[in-house]
Amino acid sequence: MTKPLGRIFASVPVMLAFSTGLAFAQGAAKTLSYDDYDLKDVCSDATPGVGGTFHLRAYSQGAGFDPAHINFSVEAGRAVYGSLTRWDVQSQSFQPYYAESLTGNEAGDEWVLKLPAKAGWSDGTPLTAEAVKKSVERFLNPDFPNTYVPMLKLISEMVVQDDQTLVIRLSKPWGTLPWIFSQPPGMIVNPKVLDAVSAKDLGAAPPAEAGLGAFTFAEWVPNSHIVLKKKADWWNGRICLDEVNVTWSAGGQANYEAMVAGQVHYFRSFDGPAVVKADANPDMRLYRAPWVASTTEMNHAGTALKDPRVRQAVVHAMNGAIINQRIWEGIGSESHTLVPPGVAIHPETAPLVYDAEKAKELVAAAKADGWDGKIRFSINNTPGNVNQGILQQAMAKAVGIEIERDELQIGDYMQKTRVQKNFEMSMGAIYLDESCSWCPFSLYGSGHTGNWMSHSDANIDAALDVLRAAQGPEEIRSAMNGLQAAWNEAVPAGVTGWLANAHIISNKARGVLPGATNAEVHIDRAYLTE
């Protein structure tokens, strides 16, 4: 028996749903009012008026337009390539986007992908099962290290049944496999382009026929902007926008002010003050994005943080309640759990909590064994992050830890921490993905290509295996209890608290469809009202 993509998640509600639609987790002093999508209010033949430039403010620049690159420019790249599936926030289910359907068997270890016969690239190359297979297989090439490798390795074989049908067989059950096709592996690159263009050239300037999306690459001025132009003839219908201008800034307040000034139509933010202002502004719409855990990422290789006592001390030193009130405007949660309170799968297993006396004991023990008590703390230098870093520095000092802040521009921060792994501790995040509870935590598994903390622990690995196979809220909550217990012992990273996260859209823009993950926003059906 097979179940269609949308029904799997309607009948098995495994998503990380809020217990209420508007309230944040326990401990929050404020609530936010989220808008509902109007899925019919998108670009169509009946849409009055056309044209204009859509201004998209991305969180970071990324390293280019090759979907298989570990630092893919995902917001801009999605407009070029599109994706086979899309997560629909309102129905809490996956929907086919460029695919026709994706169905899985009861066991969740075999899936059938159907493609629309009309789909294809601008050079006349049709979208086929063989093209999908070839594009996905690039992500398993050791020349293209990326965070999706451990997930894609679950695929034991992909069988081309016919031009429009691909059978995907897994070595282990994965009930939320449609997630992978809403991410870069689902952004299918024209096979003729893959044969003709190097990965370097694809990343720097993809040819017009590279992607299935509504837009083509026009210009990239590093550290300034990206320009995308609409296709003259698109297989998927009318395009209402003329072009897309992509800039980037992680600063929520700066992005909010740019939207007020009419310079930006979309940005995503977990900057508390900016989110609160946007929620109160009648010229903006607020859509719920995944919860974001503010984390202290700890390099386990060759630094003082290889000592679990030091890692535990850092976690015990952090007072989430103070950070929530002073930095996040009270709309976050002080909880140190792996899932915030108020979410259906919040574990009953207690996390490590703020305990200054316990932190002092651990610090003293580590110093007695030769540690000098110093940690270098790498931070992306947005105002909110810097303020939080100063506060965390003071909390650490109170328990005997001396922190040196290393404040970096976002590009330098990503290069130093994610690529070079040249850090001791860094300010990071876990995005609690509504559509795949296992996915955000999988990078803490041993050998994961995205595990820039060089962490390895057998108990964490075992708990992640249980979480991946879990279905339904009760099974997932039980699995999360096991992961929380293993996390408390190993402390691969510290959870400082949970931040409000929102997609913020100007009322001048319609048809923008955010999805489950932090960087999932579809603009191929967007249009401007003025």
Topology:
Blueprint: E1 2-4, H1 5-11, E2 53-58, H2 74-81, E3 85-88, E4 93-96, E5 101-105, E6 110-114, H3 129-137, H4 149-152, E7 155-162, E8 165-170, H5 191-196, H6 199-204, E9 215-221, E10 225-230, E11 243-248, H7 252-260, E12 266-269, H8 272-280, E13 284-288, E14 292-298, H9 308-317, H10 320-327, H11 356-368, E15 374-380, H12 383-398, E16 402-408, H13 410-419, E17 425-431, H14 439-442, H15 458-469, H16 472-490, E18 493-499, E19 502-506, E20 509-510, E21 513-514, E22 521-522, E23 527-528
Parallel strand pairs: 2-11, 2-12, 15-16, 15-17
Antiparallel strand pairs: 1-5, 3-4, 5-6, 6-8, 7-8, 9-10, 10-11, 12-19, 13-19, 14-17, 14-18, 20-23, 21-22
- For the record, the CATH architecture of the largest domain stands as Roll
Low-confidence stretches: 1-29
Under CATH at level 1, the class of the largest domain stands as Alpha Beta
Question: Which geometry do the CA atoms define?
Answer: globular
CATH topology of the largest domain: Dipeptide-binding Protein, domain 3
